[in-house]
Design goal:
By secondary structure, the protein is α/β, with parallel strands linked by helices. It has two domains: 112 residues, 3-Layer(aba) Sandwich (Rossmann fold), CATH 3.40.50; 147 residues, Rossmann fold, CATH 3.40.50.261. Helix content is 35%, strand content 21%. The longest helix has 14 residues. It is globular. GO terms for molecular function: nucleotide binding; succinate-CoA ligase (ADP-forming) activity; succinate-CoA ligase (GDP-forming) activity. Keywords: Ligase, Nucleotide-binding.
Amino acid sequence: MSIIVDSTTRVMVQGITGREGRVRTKLMKEYGTNVIGGVTPGRGGQEVERLPVFNTVKELVDNLGTPDATCIFVPAPLVKDAALEAIFNGIKFLLIVPDRVPLHDVLEIKAYAERFGARFIGPNTLGVLSPGKGVLGMIGGRAKTAREWFKQGSVGVSSRSGGITSAISYYLSREGIGLSTIVHVGGDAVVGLPHPEIMKMFQEDPETEAMVMFGEIGTSQEEQVAELVKSGVITKPIVAYIGGKGAREGTRFSHAGAIVEGGRGTRESKIRALKEAGVRVVDEFMDIPKTVKEILGK
């Protein structure tokens, strides 16, 4: 078992005929993901990677049935329309890849997702990968690389940085630590499924024994995880690393979701909250694999 995606997940791609849509569809399909088709308005009747293209989500649903998930690869100004079209047609999970999606649009997507019982990851995300089962988005870049870098196992990874998502997962796998699911929650200030929600999903996943969390300055995601641990909602061990050691107030660190303002969202406050909750917080990035091994008794 894994969270979000496995070999049975039926996946649709919105924006499948665009440059990113084509390349990432090839990655997902070659990795073994069950991609069933795609949507690009005005391009219905074409094929991408031998998959049918439809003009609307409704046309795809009418012809192929309702997908379990959609991957959205459209320009940022069109993301809201694409996401709402998917939600209104019964898709319950959305991966919103583009960055620079207007905040108001994300809030509207979030409101409709809650109303219709849907969930989403992103915006500004590399995606989700369950080793040996399936990938949504672009983690790994190529199917061959993804298969070589990320090994199947029992450690869940949740990260706020795209590059670090891949790096953590690679170094864990290189040290013989297999992974259940890898999640890049997205780099924006408001995202669909932040760290706390992903951690709760890992807690409920029987395949996941421990979790690794890469946090950053800005937002209160990591403090919320600490509260979940304190309250007993999360009982599985977590190894955390918080980036942004040199950041000062007003600093923007890498992307929109990582900014310190008014003394809130600091690296120190996150580390303090996590340590008080009993989470293993490492000071050096390369200490992550060693600490995970200790926790797993390897």
